[in-house]
Design goal:
The complex is a heterodimer of chains A (723) and B (265). The termini of chain A are far apart. Chain A has 723 residues and is an alpha+beta fold. An 8-stranded mixed β-sheet of chain A has the order 2-34-25-1-24-9-10-23, sandwiched between helices. In chain A, strands 13-14-15-16-17 form a 5-stranded antiparallel β-sheet, with no helix packed on it. Chain A has a 4-stranded mixed β-sheet with strand order 12-11-21-20, with no helix packed on it. Helix content of chain A is 29%, strand content 24%. Chain A has 17 helices and 36 strands. In chain B, helix 2 crosses helix 6 (242-261). In chain B, strands 1, 3, 4, 5, 8 and 9 form a 6-stranded antiparallel β-sheet that branches. In chain B, strands 2-6-7 form a 3-stranded antiparallel β-sheet, with no helix packed on it. In chain B, a hairpin with a 2-residue loop joins strand 6 (168-176) and strand 7 (179-187). The longest helix of chain B is centred in the N-terminal third of the chain and has 44 residues, at 66-109. Classes of the chains: A alpha+beta (723), B alpha+beta (265). At the A-B interface, helix 1, helix 2 and helix 8 of A face helix 2, helix 3, helix 4, helix 5 and helix 6 of B.
Chain lengths: 723, 265
């Protein structure tokens, strides 16, 4: 003990002497000795630089601020003069289902939503035809039907070749390039064209000088300019340009390809470790050769500790089996001055006897975005600097990996909630920064988790028959509970003057049985295959278009092979087409599943009746509304004709909403009373414009609700303000 | 680096002092970056810098919202303080060796020797002004006085203006009463190690400016100093004090090496 104390005292003395020595050096230097090397230099310079920039900007801001305010005042007069609210907070929960919500409220699981229902409003919110997220959220933001915003599904079809393309955005190579030898040097960035039409309501708010923070609302890629900040959501591609391609790096040899959404990459053994790579985008210098850029990484398993050490570029990190890494930056080098920047997460699946690592789709790096994912561009950078890297991919929760059993339930949920937490942080930051105006944020977690875990809600879902009732996790109950808890925290952040609205774009139902509509069309004689074929390949391979009158691809659209529209169309527009549509409607409506005796299709809707607008030419001819428990089969979505019309859905993707829209309305909660009994998602935009005191553009399809604002200001929304 | 030190670089037309500064700057830049990398909390520094940038971006993003702007200013100051705190730890590791290095290099590059034929001052400070009349200077061959000694009783100083006939290292003796005190004087060119002053006591001052033994404690001479001309180093078309040149070059080297080594500073 004494020895120990002596050592301690000696250490203390040494420490004191060191401190004294340092203090003397700091206090008594000659002027030429004040500089203590580049480390200190950097520290001082960097911080000085930040302060200097801040100071300069503050001087500029303070000098300019009165003029800006004056300009705003002159331009917008009193922005909020006619407004009934100063701030609106809209929380979008993709796929939150009204029936489940009511059930969980009744069970006491959702106290905050119960409070909102009691003091404000709870209604079912009518969705769009079809009830698909990109369609419904486009209607939410524009206040118009799909005939005016041009989004009918995730996919649209190319009339020239019957192949699909992404309906929301088109990304093309730069217009000009310079060919030098085998290299093709692009001159300029990629061309990105948004396909969604219509004007989001926050554009009008911004025009009026009302600041908006918009986070992760689907179909906002590419971001459009407006007065506010926006981070794009669903439909943002990954670095490969796809909607999410995961990668399974494995020592197992397999010739099986994943149906979609993923690739298998070999892991090779070296003398002391394993090496593999993350596939990236196509080499932009390759001139369309299809050469793929790659980032190699090394795996050093440590079976004793059940972990492995991974090295990617300069990053080295250790992962336990069943653990995710942080977001790791990847730089795909194409040549000097040409590189693509992405981020991904690694998940160590196994180290013995085989080595397997799952890699998330390579997201666009929000700190160095190679494609615009926010407005202004600096907003995604700001969020990255503030909170660290985050998922930017539109469909960031890797449902395909769970479907393909590359991830298990637990790993998938961990990924979902990790992304969700990032978005919560962004939301609360936006709430803090937007004390007046609009703050809108959409959370996808509700949609993805319900898609993948509905199987545990049902007694006899084909995808969970082997899991005993007692072993089924309460994933969806927990999900709703978490969302309710988030809503509670938001309610604490806002005052009585703030309008809080909780909306979902659609509800949810079981997806237990698949309907291959192309098979039905084939068997009923509407779709023909080449001689001798009983099934087609993907995307209508082996379909004889010269004898085909109708076909389907995507989730709900049914198309006539119309002469003059489709390349090989045979159905005459006019009487023949109308007659064929009637015939199809009659034959499909009420279609019974022979195995269960249940109705597989509860409605077929003529698009001429449900849509109106300038983009009708891109719409399907009919919308197929599947019954509860049914949905378009995986093959049918991909334009494949099979011999079986109905089959069990055995995938983890076990709940869905791409059915009869009447069966899957969304939810509407509000902290104020809304007197309308049948609100629809198309009404959200006009309601908000009106609450902020703006005149409504004539082209809107939605009608503003009567909202009883419980503040001193009276509310009068009965006289329409139409420009 | 003695008096007659010559290197082939000189004959090649390369400026020896600037070559030394460049070399030292590169080595120090690399060493400091490595030390910084190993002694700092790299992750925390990365986060602190990112936060700082985020608050700067917030100024721009929310420029019309004065509350947000003001909050961002406060956050910038706080984030800067946090960053400086994180950078302080590696500073503790480098401050002693770097100070020692700078002190030592300054002895070679801070001043240049007196040129042959150029007059210069040698001064003595005596703690008792009454003794100023009893002070004399004994000059070796090669050095001569160009003017009578100048007494400054108010400053307790006496000064002589000298000139050197030829290059060399001389010992000038200061006689006070019956005591002799030597002071080294270097005449010539090159990059010799210089000692501008010889001091009594004052450990820290001696540490920084003198390479000679301390003057005896029990005498009346406080200091003897030689007024060497300050050295200007020609580099990139400009004349530099070596510390400024070292500052610029070591920073540049640091930036270069931090990028290469992937170290966050």
């Amino acid at each position: 003990m004494t020895f120990g104390r002596n050592v301690l005292l000696a250490d203390r003395r040494r420490f004191s002497v060191c401190i004294a020595w340092l203090a003397l050096l700091l206090l008594c230097p000659a002027s030429s000795h004040a500089y203590a090397g580049p480390g200190a230099g950097f520290a001082v310079l960097s911080s000085f630089w930040a302060l200097f920039v801040a100071f300069l900007y503050s001087v500029y801001a303070f000098l300019v601020w009165p003029f800006r305010q004056l300009f705003r005042l002159l331009r917008h007069r009193n922005i909020y003069a006619k407004a009934q609210i100063k701030r609106a907070v809209i929380l979008g929960f993709d796929g939150m289902d009204p029936e489940l919500t009511e059930r969980f409220i009744a069970e006491g699981r959702l106290p905050n939503l119960a409070k909102l229902r009691e003091r404000g409003t709870f209604r079912k919110l009518a969705t769009t035809y079809p009830a698909i997220s990109p369609v419904a959220w486009s209607t939410f933001m524009t206040g118009v039907n799909p005939g005016k915003h041009n989004i009918y599904d995730f996919l649209a079809r190319d009339l020239g070749n019957y192949l699909p393309y992404l309906s929301s955005a088109e990304i093309k190579a730069p217009k000009r390039s310079l060919k030098i030898g085998k290299y093709n040097i692009p001159l300029g960035g990629p061309r990105i064209k948004g396909m969604r039409r219509g004007i989001p309501f926050w554009h009008w708010l911004g025009e009026a000088g009302i600041f908006c923070s918009v986070l992760r609302v689907p179909v906002t890629f590419p971001p459009e300019k407006f007065s506010g900040v926006l981070l794009s959501g669903m439909c943002v591609p990954d670095l490969k340009g796809s909607q999410g391609t995961f990668c399974l790096c494995t020592t197992r040899t397999s010739s099986d390809k994943f149906r979609e959404g993923g690739v298998r990459v070999p892991v090779e053994r070296t003398r002391s470790s394993y090496v593999s790579y993350v596939p990236g985008p196509e080499n932009p210098l390759g001139g369309g050769s299809g050469e793929e850029l790659r980032v190699k990484f090394e795996i050093r398993p440590d079976p004793g500790k059940n972990q492995a050490r991974l090295t990617v570029d300069s990053e080295t990190f250790t992962l336990k089996v069943g653990e995710y890494s942080q977001w790791i930056p990847l730089k795909f080098k194409a040549g000097v001055g040409f590189s693509a920047h992405g981020i991904c997460r690694f998940y160590l699946k196994e180290i013995f006897p085989e080595v397997e690592v799952y890699v998330t789709p390579v997201n666009i790096d929000p700190g160095r975005p190679d494609l615009p994912i926010s407005h202004p561009v600096t907003y995604s950078i700001y969020l990255e600097k503030m909170f660290g890297p985050y998922a930017t991919l539109g469909l960031a929760e890797d449902t395909w990996a769970l479907n393909e059993k590359v991830l298990d339930d637990e790993a998938f949920l961990a990924q979902c909630y990790s992304n969700h937490e990032d978005r919560e942080r962004m939301l609360f930051d936006a709430l803090e920064k937007t004390q007046q105006g609009l703050c809108a944020c959409v959370f996808d977690t509700t949609d993805r988790v319900q898609h993948m875990f509905w199987r545990y809600l049902e007694e006899n879902h084909p995808a969970a028959r082997e899991v005993p009732r007692s072993q089924r996790p309460n994933v969806i109950q927990d999900l709703y509970g978490r969302m309710d808890e988030l809503i509670g925290r938001v309610m604490k952040q806002i005052d009585d003057q703030t309008l809080l609205m909780i909306v979902s774009d659609h509800g949810f139902k079981s997806f237990a049985r698949c309907v291959n509509l192309n098979a039905w069309l084939h068997q009923a004689g509407y779709l023909a295959l080449n001689e001798g074929k009983t099934e087609s390949g993907d995307w209508f391979d082996d379909v004889d278009w010269s004898r085909t009158r109708a076909y389907t691809m995507g989730l709900n659209g049914l198309y006539l092979n119309l002469k003059g529209r489709e390349r090989e169309g045979i159905v005459e527009p006019g009487v023949e087409a109308e007659s064929l549509k009637d015939e199809l409607r009659r034959n499909l409506d009420g279609l019974v599943d022979p195995a269960s005796g249940r109705v597989g299709i509860t409605g077929v809707f003529d698009c001429d009746a449900v849509y109106a607008g300038p983009y009708m030419e891109n719409a399907p001819d009919l919308i197929v509304g599947y019954g509860d428990g049914y949905r378009a089969s995986w093959d049918s979505v991909m334009g494949k004709v099979t011999s079986q019309m109905f089959e069990d859905n055995l995938k983890a993707w076990s709940g869905d909403h791409c059915i009869d829209p009447r069966l899957v309305p969304g939810v509407l909660f509000c902290n104020q009373k809304i007197s309308d009994e049948k609100p629809a998602i198309v009404d959200v935009a006009p309601t908000l414009l009106k609450l902020f005191g703006l005149a409504l553009p004539r082209y809107l399809d939605g009608k503003p609700w009567t909202v009883g604002i419980s503040t001193s200001r009276s509310v009068e929304l009965s006289s329409p303000l139409v420009t | 680096m003695g008096l007659h030190y010559t290197v082939p670089m000189g004959s090649l037309g390369i400026n020896v002092p600037s070559g030394i500064v460049v070399g030292i700057s590169l080595i120090v830049g690399l060493a400091m970056v490595l030390v910084f990398g190993h002694t700092s909390d790299q992750k925390a520094i990365h986060i602190a810098k990112d936060r700082l940038k985020a608050h700067l971006l917030a100024l721009r993003l929310y420029q019309d919202q004065i509350q947000v702007v003001l909050r961002s200013y406060v956050q910038i100051v706080l984030a800067t303080g946090h960053y400086l705190r994180l950078a302080f730890r590696p500073l503790l590791f480098v401050i002693v060796p770097i100070t020692l290095l700078i002190v030592e290099v300054d002895r070679y590059l801070g001043s240049e020797p007196v040129a042959t034929g150029q007059s210069f001052l040698i001064r003595a400070r005596i703690d008792n002004p009454d003794l100023l009349n009893q002070v004399s200077l004994q000059l070796p061959n090669g050095l001569s006085s160009t003017a009578p000694a100048v007494h400054e009783p108010a400053e307790k100083k006496i000064a002589w203006r000298l000139i050197a006939d030829r290059a060399g290292e001389y010992a000038v003796n200061l006689q006070v009463a019956d005591q002799l005190f030597a002071k080294r004087v270097v005449v010539g060119s090159g990059v010799p190690r210089l000692s501008p002053a010889r001091l009594r006591g004052k450990f820290w001052e001696r540490f920084f400016v003198s390479t000679e033994p301390a003057l005896p404690a029990n005498n009346s001479v406080e200091a003897i100093d030689v007024q060497y001309p300050a050295r200007e180093i020609a580099f990139a078309g400009m004349e530099w004090n070596w510390v400024w040149l070292f500052f610029v070059l070591s920073m540049a080297a640091g930036f270069l090496f931090k990028s290469i080594l992937g170290i966050e500073i």
